[in-house]
Amino acid sequence: MAKRTFICNNCGHTEPKWLGKCPQCGSWNSLEESSIENKKGSRGSVKPIQSAHIRNIQDIVEDELSRITTGSTELDRVLGGGIVPGSSVLVGGEPGIGKSTLMLQTANALADQKVLYISAEESAAQIKRRFTRLELKSTSLELLCTNHMEEVEKALQKNKPGCVILDSIQTISNQEIGAVPGTVNQIKYISHELIQWARENNGAVFIIAHVTKDGNIAGPKVLEHMVDTVLYFEEGSHDLRIIRGKKNRFGSVDELGLFTMTSKGCRQVKDPASRFLIQRENVIPAGTATAAVIEGTRPLLIEIQALTIPAKGSFNRIYSDKIEASRIARVAAILEKHVGMSFNDQDLYINIAGGIRVQEVGIDLALALALFSARSGIALPEKSCSAGELSLAGEVLQVNGLLNRCKTAAEYGMKRFYGAKEKKKIQAVEQYIGSYRLKDLISAINS
Ligand SMILES: Nc1ncnc2c1ncn2[C@@H]1O[C@H](COP(=O)(O)OP(=O)(O)O)[C@@H](O)[C@H]1O
Ligand SMILES: [Mg+2]
């Protein structure tokens, strides 16, 4: 008999006995008994274990990693260059953000792969309406509308698709695991079956999952560990959609895919590098600074906006959802210590135009310049841009890909670039102003 375990529905934590409150995430009444160990293999019997051999690393021949293009360079980019046969991809995002739309477009573009689109949320007629609205033309796309994993397993055996899209993991269940879809056991079992199917058949599987308001996939974290790639949809300003890789066994996780949501579907952003710049006819206001960042392999120009006003409460607060508050506090502390500018009695509001979230270290300098500009009321020179990391000692540190950043800045009309001191002359922009110390760069702006 299998050992009894209880799994938290919220975070996936396991306990040997039932508890009213999960000791890991603190949610109440979320532990339920696991029965997954008792479940036989999906094909009705326990699968025989294949013998495994130890081999010397030198005897192993690398096979070429083939990739299948999704028909979208932005999606290919976040996947690391396209879909890897045999792999599994989790596509997460809030309801209504565009997961089904992008996946239907992808299914349409993968006509050669014999795609099976499994919908456990929408009827065939609803999907056909979307297909027509998006002006898709595939004649080979197959649909299966069911909430039962047993039906999916039968279809996989019978139809032998090359690519499977499941929309969504939280609405499908297997009777033997329990009647309710979306539980930890259901999610674990269904993903395991699909991931195994992809590996055994060199197919590809996309698993769509809803995320909760706090940004987590509703269900266990374990799903993220099981798949090869995890992609999250984020909402930018207006119709912008950003797809960010959180995990990728076959590529970089820093890449972003940029799309706009239209009635005709998810369209790739044409000019990503300048998508977040604000074109102004008049002089630039104090409190704004442009940063040249590198997300993955791509340079982007972003505008950081800062506003400082006397604190409303007895202590000051930071309001920012696109840059972590801890980074803003650190940069403000550096300004206070090394430039002599105090933010003690000020509330700080920070934003990035276009609604993109940025974590790259190279924005430190632009953040400092935006804060300095907001507090002093001195606008930064027009057509200026920066990239640099700041140390707690007030130094400006070099960042990777500086030439690439400068070239992109110059391409979009930037004349002046602030950064760390460089040994060689930077010719990619009209004027490169480099210094070891933040204080000197700020003096250069002030003068
Ligand atoms: N009939 C329609 N006309 C125009 N846009 C639509 C229509 N139906 C849905 N949309 C757009 O598609 C989005 C929903 O996309 P969808 O792929 O269903 O999201 P998800 O699968 O992430 O819940 C909506 O937010 C809306 O912008
Ligand atoms: Mg959907």
Query: How far from one another are the termini?
Result: 79 Å
Strand order, biggest sheet? 6-5-7-8-4-9-10-11-12
Indicate the radius of gyration in whole angstroms. 26 Å
Whole-number average pLDDT? 90
- From the helix content, strand content and strand pairing, which structural class follows? alpha/beta
Q: Which cofactors or ions or other ligands sit in this model?
A: adenosine-5'-diphosphate, magnesium ion
**Count of separate DSSP helical elements:** 10
Low-pLDDT residue intervals, each spanning 5 or more residues: 38-44
The beta-strand count equals: 21
Shape, per Cα inertia axes: globular
- Percent in helix: 10-25%
**How many strands, what sense, and barrel or not for the largest sheet?**
9 strands, mixed
Q: β content, as a range?
A: 15-25%
Tags for this entry?
four-stranded mixed sheet, 447 residues, alpha/beta, nine-stranded mixed sheet, 24% helix, binds adenosine-5'-diphosphate, single chain, globular
